[in-house]
Design goal:
five-stranded antiparallel sheet; 9 strands; globular
Length: 184
Amino acid sequence: MILPIVGYGHQVLRSKAVEIGADYPGLSELIENMFETMYNAQGVGLAAPQINLPIRLFVVDGTPMDDEEMQGFKRVFINAKKLEENGKPWGFEEGCLSIPDIREMVRRRSDITLNYFDENFEEKTETFSGMKARVIQHEYDHTEGILFMDHISHLRRSILKPRLQKIIRGDIEVEYPMKFNRKV
């Protein structure tokens, strides 16, 4: 089932998400729905807060990217905890399904080590690099109440403010279902 994605300005996007247990109701179906929602919106990652669930869960599938290292990279991250970020920061233009039609250059470190549970609630600790690390960092940020816009300059955010206000009002057209805050 395709779920609506919440737009910029929605309170859940700014809340720190809570951990869940293996007994979380309908977890397998939720994960399936998150992948379906992400694919429908042509995304490569989706965090539960983006579908109005304040829980520490995100999914990624880098296959649609034109990047060889991302081919077949499909994962579920539950209760992820960042253990460390390393490497030289590098810039890449990021976008977000909750902030449609805005893309900005974001600098992130090249490596991230996470402790997390997969969809079978098997605990894992892994280090990811390059584009994998970037996609994971972006989605992990959602579980912390952080948006990619927080990584750009105050001046750039000021310039984008009119476009962000349009998203808050729902005054945009997208090809996927969205829910908006509609407060200005």
